[in-house]
Design brief:
6 copies of one chain form a homohexamer. Chain A is α+β, with helices and mostly antiparallel strands and 207 residues long. Chain A is 20% helix and 29% strand. In chain A, the strands form 3 sheets. Chain A has a 5-stranded antiparallel β-sheet with strand order 4-5-12-7-10, with no helix packed on it. The first copy, chain A, has a 5-stranded antiparallel β-sheet with strand order 9-8-11-6-13. In chain A, strands 1-2 form a two-stranded antiparallel ribbon. Chains A, B, C, D, E, F: One of its GO terms (molecular function) is manganese ion binding.
Chain lengths: 207, 207, 207, 207, 207, 207
């Protein structure tokens, strides 16, 4: 028996491992999803394209009121991330741009500033600071944080998460874009009635 | 572009997070179940009722030989618990009531006594003690434990588990309500033949 | 050799398991803490008191502005919870009492109402509803939620968490009790300057 | 710069990884232990001996009443297992030998019979069967199970666990070798008083 | 109400736990697979045969060039292992037999030598040594390792993994049995062109 | 009682959460390390600098034989990453630069190309492709992979890992920079003696 035949025998194991959960589990977004992620696409249907994502190369459009854009590469955009405990977001921020206070309930984050500078912080230890090109900063899972471009030049950053779908809860959206009665929002935030109604109006909330 | 439009753009992320495993994964009890829980119900079919369970408000019927009743809110009763690492049980115990020795193979437990008093313990460190109203006690995963109402008044307690389906193995049921031959039970427990046959008779075991 | 001697031999294993991480790991609050919890107290120093906590039997004082009190049994109060993936809080709410919007970055929650009624909700799916005695409701990890007693009678609830230290981030405290400049808070929340300064004043924030 | 120098540069990473938790974490049994295992021995003190254990080559002494011996290679005997999610036990069973009903609260098990035959089972699905040489069987975490050599020749088996310290709770020891009052054991097991006192006597229990 | 009836009531919980993920989750190999394993077979269809595997009793055929055979009991061969964090492999090695350098990306390993002797090692700390009958050795997840029978007698070993599907990447297969251009292999390994082409030829690689 | 006083009471919980494992656990590199990471630095000693790392802003020196440089931000360089399941590496590659075949035993990876183009691939499914600016690609935990700059311009990429210390095993270093006897390397890789000795010579291996 040749070494070729022998290793072909051994390769039954290798083939088995192709189907194994440990090697990779590209999300089949149309199949059942469980607490730890999506079902795996059949290995026979997986191609190299499942491992590659090209959506982060183009700057997001920052011609909006917050002068910022976040382009996600979560598992729903990049199915190859399923089960790997990782995802990415591209952050473009014009001068004066802001990513308002928000949390990611499902994962921790590390930001890396590639161009310009960003004032960023998370609340818990009141850790806020200005990050310049090449600086990175952590935002632990579930804590309120923000990014703000206080400089006169555009900023670019990339953000990594410890989950393929870290989630996102933007504070303003949570407080004012819902259909909770204003009284309820006021009672649970101590904000004034006029303030709540003003932002409900802007953000499309009712009640 | 208005702030409304801008935040609507941002809300694509928010919408995406609605479908995320991290926000919630209400069990679809009819869909495939995996090692870490049930498949998630489609978000579009989820209602506020999936997050609420009303079965623990009524006392269980303790008019039975053990004078005790356990009312579960596991994932099969309360599908909203799926993937959250939590479940509850209501415990009603008449005077003299007992929850016989048992284990939960799938989760740790903490009991909180709300009315009356309960003698409880787990075996490992032979930790047993009497718990009064307001007392709580832990029972680590997989260890034999019991609860017993030695007082003259009814007792009420609530139990929390670290898993949506902690499992339950009641010792007497395990030993005597099965179809193992009596000889096998005797050989593996050192119990006397008469004892085994007596309890097999009472508990409906055969063999 | 007697069965006693034999089982004493077997008990070396049992003794070994006494020291095992799986049986229990009572927190030694003075020893190093790692990402998954505190170091374990020496087994020889563990007593039954480490497994029992009596702090939840007394109503918290609700004679305060929010007319509510939360009494925790986290790992720092109840070291026996270390490593078990569980903790508890007692919630007392006078009529009109409110637990303002907050998140638990480190764990999911299930509330169980034992007396009175509580209006509760979490934001993501805008799931809010009124819970009556015996009702339970989930609040997934990291999502903003609140509890409010809109009834004319006191309410009592117990809350279970999927972590020995779920953490707590109260929105108002996060926004207004820090030393972030008001401009920063305004830029990242879209709240008005007067609103921010008013609440900073009340809550002791500076800047 | 030579390739040697270059790779020496790269090796800073490699060296860093030597100290990394992922490569290995040999238990320092004298240092703090946490919920997920022991502290790691300093890499500079680790030798090849930490990765090897020679205690399973010798048959255990089965000249005892249960005619069986279990020789463990848990993390306390084999510190290299720390953090790896694995451990082993050697099982020697003379004819008629029995490993009485027990559970492992901290890990699942798979047995592999190498000599003779063993009748084994776990309770839940009442799964019991006779295993012959070459057969393997699973025992899920926390479920009561037993092994019994009903054949006329010695049996040898090796057991693997999914944890470096799976724990062990032998039912008879748990029930009768403690200092719980007999009445308590009887009330929580439905066993007869005579039965409880007899086995308490044999197993050295008091009370 | 008889104790029988009472325990039958209690057994609703027990029945519930039969369906629980914690008791067992036998793989349904035809149903969706997720990042943590296969979907569970319906409990009603599970038989004792799902918990037993008989494939490791027969020596593998070592009449091949590497003079060795590995017989796996991974989840695809032994569905009862699903979700349990365990699997096994039987290793038969004739004199001179070798299991070439390989890794298991998905799990750690412990080998136990039952007959003969095996020279084994893993690379990281350059831990290699000769194992004799009864010796066990760990190979941490993802590190390159090998086994080699340098003795004059056959060797038999059993290997346990910390995962039901640990995967397998055999170095030679990875480097030479693929369709990567030889230039690419050479550039990323520093191996000589002749060496790469020779082994590509033997192992059936192209390019 | 003022709202200030009330919230100060509530803030005991908040303060407790400051010390909680869930908020953050900055590595104390001098304290014990366990299987899941380093001990946490005392909260009172933590400053905003612990959350920020500035080492990735400067290009690595690619004036070496592999014409590439990898600058890590693992937990040992950036202690704030401890327990967060994340780390980063900066990759600078001159034209012709190569990161030779390697694995990360402890974590999965996603690369994002920011300048130039990189030919990258992992072996398992033989997934290799050319990545251009803005492209990202996954490399699942433990699988052999490489990066190569086949273009005429420098390339810059950032790499994220799903672990604070993913580890690194460079194939050439593993095979040739150790003190294994050449015969052993040859027997377990099928490489020719001359090839092994040549690379042992270059890479400083002995034996």
């Amino acid at each position: 028996m040749s070494i070729l035949q022998t290793l072909i025998l051994l390769s039954f194991l290798l083939s088995a491992s192709h189907a194994a959960v440990q090697d990779f589990c590209v999300a089949d977004l149309s199949a059942p999803e469980g607490p730890t992620g999506y079902s795996c696409k059949k290995v026979s249907a997986v191609t190299v394209n499942d491992f590659v994502f090209s959506g982060l190369g183009v700057a997001g459009n920052t011609s909006n009121l917050i002068k910022a854009a976040a382009t996600p590469a979560f598992v729903t955009q990049f199915p190859g991330l399923n089960g790997l405990g990782l995802s990415l977001v591209r952050l473009d921020m014009a001068p004066g741009g802001v990513i308002p206070l928000h949390t990611h309930p499902g994962g921790s984050e590390v930001i890396l500033v590639l161009e310009g500078s960003i004032c960023a912080g998370f609340i818990s230890s009141s850790a806020n600071t200005t990050l310049n090109k090449g600086d990175s900063m952590i935002f632990p899972r579930g804590l309120l944080h923000f990014q703000l471009n206080a400089a006169k030049v555009p900023a670019l950053a990339f953000v990594s998460f410890s989950s393929p779908s870290p989630g996102l809860q933007i504070l303003d959206f949570a407080l004012f874009a819902n259909n909770f009665p204003s009284e309820l929002v006021e009672a649970t935030t101590f904000l004034d009635d006029a303030q709540v109604k003003k932002l409900k109006g802007i953000l499309g909330g009712t009640g």
